[in-house]
Amino acid sequence: MHNKSIAELSQGLASGDFSSIELTRAYLERIETHNAGLNALISVTAEEAMAAAQLADQTRQAGNAGPLTGVPLVYKDIFCTDGVKTSCGSKILDNFIAPYDATVVAKCKTAGMPMLGKANMDEFAMGSSNETSFYGPVKNPWDTETVPGGSSGGSAALVAARLTPIATGTDTGGSIRQPAALCGITGLKPTYGRVSRYGMVAFASSLDQAGPMARSAEDAAWLLNVMAGFDEHDSTSVEREVPDYTAHLNTDLQGLKIGLPKEYFGEGLDAEVGRVVDAAIRQYQQMGAELMEISLPNSHLSVPTYYVVAPAECSSNLSRFDGVRFGYRCEDPQDLEDLYKRSRGEGFGAEVKRRIMIGTYALSAGYYDAYYLKAQQLRQLISDDFKRAFEKVDVIMGPTAPDVAFKLGAKASDPVSMYLSDIYTIATNLAGLPGMSIPAGFVAGNKGDMPVGLQIIGNYFDESRLLNVAHQFQLSTNWHQRVPEGFE
Amino acid sequence: MSLGKEDIEKIAHLARLGINDADVPGYVRNLSDILGLVEQMSAVETSGVTPMAHPLDARQRLRADEVTEINQREQLQANAPQVEAGLFLVPQVIE
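^ Those are the sequences you sent over. The predicted structure of the assembly is below.
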């Protein structure tokens, strides 16, 4: 049952081959067997899952089932889930029971999808390896001595290990696409504003966007159909009709114009990863696509720009964690300042503190113009590069990450080297564009083959085309069907 | 760009972040490294470039001035560390 696609599960539920109760129980059993070795879940919500599965089966019997009714999923633990712990990977929210559902969660509930649990993640989504989580690192199912990527590393590991059919993730600088690449799954970061941010714990509000993490583009399209849409509770949600993302999966790619930014294939890219990405791109050429070299001349400024914009917004967003209204409070505060400082000092981990401090510095008196304003100007230049490129091409392709999954601990003491893991994904968030990562092939690692991701970037609101381009590749390759050893 | 011990202490105070003395040298090093990375920005001439605050040219939506939230004080305060009579308790502020 655990190797079926979303379409096959939907079909099996509809034809009565199995019930949602049977399906959900089968996944909970797999989680029971395999999660301990991966540490990919912060909470397993077995009771909620079985109750929702029962309800889904009743809905189906009453003739009211939709395509995903009864298909279970996992949420990254950044999404508020009514009555269930929502920790965001942090000690400061370890005792937080969300009093409401995020819009994404409410939509999945309405669609009849049982929640299996809440996925581990880098603390407040700040990290590219899942090592900043208060709950300990997630292990990559392809080699448990390596990281799964981050910040949505728990979601990626769970999908790769077949412990959930599908999961949600969020992406502020690559947090869906980079772990998708490192775990060999398909992840989509939609256009900024496409999916509601309401009830998603905020990190950098002008960059954060939620999306599906799945085994295939087709699966991702099914979940995006549920997740996307206008929400009056999110002031940056876009009022725009949601197409059926499964409708154009089968369009052929004859004449598709693919832009290859020369900056994405230069220094810093691992040679073997580069070869796998090149081979995937040549495959597109054989499928009838046209390749064009393009330039994104300001792309080298993406990481520096991001590390002003994101920390500045994070320092502001995370000021709400004050030990007064919810979350962790220190023991025996002497006075109010002591309460703030120790609650935050003890509640936040090192990476979150670093980013709060960088953001506080960048926004402090006398530095605003040199840092935040300058970064916003560069953000405009980076965005303009993409605008010019999309006048000539339909999609842009390149590597998702410069290397395959690295060893646990390898970059933990050097934040800047960790930040460079997102060198190819960050610009997309700064511009607000949609981007995907799909399995492109494998390279030999220490324990066996390690997956490589191909990144596909689209124009604003062009998710249907991204999914189409990804699906066509997956019809002619089977990289996305490989399962890590021990999880077959 | 490199920061000193005093800079870290000042920034931590502005952010109301308690940090241990033993961790200060690590923050000095890491934050200086990050600012070194960020420093690449200053090499680019940006006069006349409109700062981009938001990815889409979205305008702030307005809604009718109606009551849409119901009172959920008890439910919301269930997560608070210390509450009395519907109020959040903090250490005494005024002598």
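The domain at 6-256+392-408+434-481 of chain A is CATH 3.90.1300.10 (Amidase signature (AS) enzymes). Residues 369-389 of chain A form the longest helix (21 residues).

Shout if you want it in another format.
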